[in-house]
Amino acid sequence: MNSLDTTQRVWALTIQRFAEIVYVRRGTSRYASLLLVPVFVAIAVPGWWWAICAIGTGSAILVERRRQRALFWAKISFADCSEADIQRILSRQSMVMGALTALYVAPYGLLALAPAPGPLLGLLFCAGAEIGRAHV
User: Using one digit for the tens of pLDDT, what is the confidence trace for 32-91?
Assistant: First the structure.
């Protein structure tokens, strides 16, 4: 196995571990905190902006849970995979993680159009969602 193969396998295992942590650990507390954010928006921002946040957060959670059930690659032994399989898995999982991040962040990006303190809350929650996804 040359250094390129080793590097690709290390990255594959890194992405696999990242996704395992995101999907398996901190599930209950993470979902509870995600569901509380629209409540904070409802208290602080006048209007129906909380509903946009609630719908966006709810749809992101549903997509994530559905995607979590559909995962088969977490059980794959990368020793048995070809390099093309690893690249396909890495590409797909990177796209899924990016799409989920966008689903979580998009509703709070719309708070930039809300009356004060909506833009500030939107910035805080967008940054928090991005940091939360990148940290885990």
Answer: 888 888 898 899 999 999 999 899 888 888 887 777 766 655 555 566 667 777 778 777
The torsion of the CA quartet 126, 132, 133, 136, rounded to 10 degrees, works out to 170
Q: Where in the chain are the domains?
A: 3-135
Q: Give every CB contact of residue 40 below 8 A, 6+ residues apart in sequence.
A: 121
Contact of 76 with 89, CB cutoff 8 Å: yes
Q: Is the four-CA dihedral 64, 67, 72, 73 of positive or negative sign?
A: negative
**92 in Cβ contact with 19 (< 8 Å):** no
Helix axes 49-70, 27-44, angle to 10 degrees: 170
pTM (2 decimals)?
A: 0.68
